[in-house]
Amino acid sequence: MTRDEIIKYWVALAEQDHQTMIHLHESKDYHWSLFLGHLVLEKLLKTIYVALVDTKVPWTHDLLRLSEKAGLKPSDKQKDQMDIVTSFNIAARYPDYKHSFYNKCTPAFTEKNLIIIKELKTWLLEILEKK
């Protein structure tokens, strides 16, 4: 695949995950919705890495680390938000965290964090459009 084909492919995957995130939220699977939100941002950050750095993406799920490796300059607020969303990846996957995360994912908590995910998604797509 060419660099442009990889970029289009990963953006399409991120959009599919975004739609799944919305469906999970609508079906009240809040913790899985937030987990998918993390995947959306991870895929977009890896897409930016491909666009700006190299086609061999780093093996990490840490959103802040991916943004730094891609050469992005997130604000302090965005850094904090990426750290929070990264925690959804761990909390939804591992049994020792999963139960407490499930209980934490109230409708209000989920709504608040889906807004953050959508704002970060918009920011990352704007970066891709400028590349």
Question: Strands, helices and their partners?
Answer:
Blueprint: H1 3-26, H2 30-52, H3 63-69, H4 76-93, H5 95-104, H6 107-130
Helix pairs in contact: 1-2, 2-3, 2-4, 2-6, 4-5, 4-6
Structure commentary:
The chain is mainly α and 131 residues long. The protein has a single domain (3-130), classed as Nucleotidyltransferases  domain 2 (Four Helix Bundle (Hemerythrin (Met), subunit A)), CATH 1.20.120. The chain is built from six helices and no strands. The radius of gyration is 14 Å and the shape is globular. It starts with a helix and ends with a helix. Helix content is 81%, strand content 0%. The longest helix has 24 residues, at 3-26.
What's the short version?
The chain has 131 residues and is mainly alpha-helical. The protein has helices at residues 3-26, 30-52, 63-69, 76-93, 95-104, 107-130.
User: How many distinct folded domains?
Assistant: 1
How many β strands by DSSP?
0
Rg (C-alpha, Å)? 14 Å
Enter the CATH topology name: Four Helix Bundle (Hemerythrin (Met), subunit A)
Largest sheet: none
Unreliable segments (pLDDT under 50, ≥5 consecutive)? Answer: none
CATH class: Mainly Alpha
By DSSP (H or I, 4+ residues per run), the number of helices equals 6
Tell me the CATH architecture.
Up-down Bundle
Proportion of β residues? under 5%
Instruction: Report the oligomer.
Output: single chain
- Can you give the helix content as a percent range? over 70%
Beginning-to-end CA distance, first to last residue: 18 Å
CATH superfamily: Nucleotidyltransferases  domain 2
Structural class comes to mainly alpha
Order of helices and strands: HHHHHH
